[in-house]
């Protein structure tokens, strides 16, 4: 259907995953909506673009999801795009320790009882059963506890499992990160067994997998999508939003109209100065390296064929994760606020060195590298910040909030963004 549905009743501001998730739910219900985005493209912190230096489509950063992310999968089913994500046949996370060359596969087993920790061949090298049992301390984490209050940082499991997990899942150093939030991640993933832990990766990039099909779904339903529209001001009368001010247009709201603000916390707070929001943040740095040709992937385990988009966890270097898409290697460093302050050529050199060591390439021949420095990748997921996460309903009767930073109970991830958009769409009552 391409017909215009008349005056929009729901104005969604922000076309990241939270805004797109709200939009597709409401479009499915037949509501008339308009979507406004400040940038020239949708996707926000989860986007793809053609990079002229590498002459390849690249993502702003590697994004790893898991089969536990049921909201993402439901979103993809709704827009008919489940095929954009791929996962290996089983949950296998290969790791390499660059400090000593040791490699292993983290392989949780089926079902909720983690018997794999009883098998010395499946345990992480240097760890014993006791290392894993100590993790049970997380079950008793208080609301103010940080991860390092609950876990033994001297145990060999710390460096090879807990610390990389905290950094990847919470993008916050472990001595700041909320222990309860980490417990929640474990409850949704490892505690459910292998089936919930299969790593989901965008086959051809984030835009083609998660963003473009949503835009097509919305366009097919006559939704107006307005790019280069940065909301500058919200006008209010009493407890209602009455107008939206964009650079080239002012939108007067009717009595029955709603607004969903699906913005990053800093942008939401700039528009609503009294809004309590978690504003401290951490960076994620990514580097994309175009190799002269696709290299062999040396980490195929005994668990099956090399996945479509192979990836590797790295310990003891600068990078945390390495992904390979044909001839492009992409590396991620999370909780990287200090690294993000260094010049790009230094970052590129450090990440190329990790790549050459991991893939056995000649380190002397540095290929073209694009560094992408997302300084505000996510909010700092500390106990204090979690208390500032707002519910979808705001102090204004016709304004709802969405975004990965709102109170979804999850870390600031795509799953959180998608769930927040769903929650906002659900909270809205229209004639
Ligand atoms: C490098 C990187 C790696 C990541 N890795 C992972 C990962 O591995 N797994 C995972 O699940 N998550 C990951 N994340 C987090 C994930 O990308 C975010 O949680 C998610 O994309 C947030 O979506 P959102 O819609 O809440 O916010 P955003 O994506 O920030 O969307 C907000 C949108 O609002 C727009 N906007 C801002 N101000 C205005 C305004 N005034 N008017 C109109 N529009 C405005 C912005 O341009 C943007 O498009 C990563 C993030 C980064 C940056």
From TrEMBL:
Domain Amine oxidase: residue ranges: 17-428
Record-linked InterPro entries: Amino_oxidase, FAD/NAD-bd_sf, SQase_HpnE, Zeta_carotene_desat/Oxidored
GO molecular function: oxidoreductase activity
Superkingdom of origin: Bacteria
Pfam families assigned: Amino_oxidase (PF01593)
PANTHER family registered for this protein in UniProt: BLR3003 PROTEIN, PROTOPORPHYRINOGEN OXIDASE
Protein name: NAD(P)-binding protein
Annotated organism of origin: Pelagibius litoralis
Lineage summary: Bacteria, Pseudomonadati, Pseudomonadota, Alphaproteobacteria, Rhodospirillales
